[in-house]
Amino acid sequence: MKNLILTLLIFMIAFSISAQRGQGYAPEPEIGIVEKLDEYLPEDIYIINTDGQRERLFDMLDKPTAIAIVYYRCPGICSPFMTSVAEVVQNSNMVIGEEYQILNISFDPTEGTNLSRANQNSYHMLIDKDFDPDGWRFFTTDSLNSRKLTDAVGFKYKRQGLDFLHTSALIFVSDEGKITRYLHGTYFLAMDLKLAVVETAEGKSGPSLSRLLSYCYSYDPAGQAYVFNVTRVAGSIILFFAVVIFLVLVLKPKRKVTN
Questions:
Q1: CA triplet 167, 134, 124: central angle to 5 degrees?
Q2: What is the pLDDT of residues 37-81, one digit of tens each?
Q3: CA-to-CA distance for 207 and 199, rounded, in angstroms?
């Protein structure tokens, strides 16, 4: 009986994974983020600051760092994403520039320092409190270093005409270059930021609540927004209850028949 139950459970898990792959939920999506927790950034990634100077990314990692991979001409989620970053910096009681820092890096190699500087000025103005402007810096980069960075953190995107289809996340990295946490989506809570910063400072890594939310919500490239994935969530719920009902029926003790 135990072998039968084990076989059925393995079959159902395999069926679920197969169904998700068939519906586009494979671990390596064409557009999305494949988490690289506990992996390390390459030490030879170079980015360009708003003054046009080339800097080595690894040299900047002197505190918990949140990397935001965007492109500045983005007509979709980058604007609400960066607005949300400004809001969480505003609402957090953590001191940006001292306890943590944020690095915005454009993955579009055609963008230059004029765009990064303009965006930096615009989003800094949304923060209505005194803060160290060097705590949130904006960068561009070339195609080689863009590819190194996006590959290292699992950021998947696709060109569509002059623009790109992509998702968004704050990717936290320790001072040793270790990837510790991803905050997915376009909205962040101050407590999520604090937890990510504290655990990154300790070198701890792990999934966050936003990972669960990213499972329930999928990025719609056509609408350039996150939408509730009814099929994925409903399928998971149905599978869960199917397993529970089966186990109840199988493990339920049989009544003895009395004459």
A1: 60
A2: 999 999 999 999 999 999 999 999 999 999 999 999 999 999 999
A3: 11
Per-residue pLDDT at 138 exceeds 80: yes
Task: Please name the amino acid found at residue 100.
Answer: Y
Question: By C-alpha distance, which of 66, 91, 82, 2 is closest to 208?
Answer: 66
> For 174-217, what is each residue's pLDDT tens digit?
999 999 999 998 999 999 999 999 999 999 987 655 455 555 55
Annotated domain spans of the chain: 2-24+229-251, 32-206
N-term to C-term CA, the chain:
27
Tokens at 88, concatenated: 């969480």
Structure tokens at 136: 């949130």
**Are residues 47 and 91 in contact, defined by beta-carbon separation less than 8 angstroms?**
no
Amino acid at 179: I
Does the domain spanning 32-206 belong to CATH 3.40.30.10? Answer: yes
The residue among 240, 213, 209 whose CA lies nearest residue 228 is 213
Output the pLDDT for position 20: 47
Distances in Å between the Cα of 117 and the Cα atoms of 48, 140, 164, 176, 216 are 11, 10, 21, 28, 35
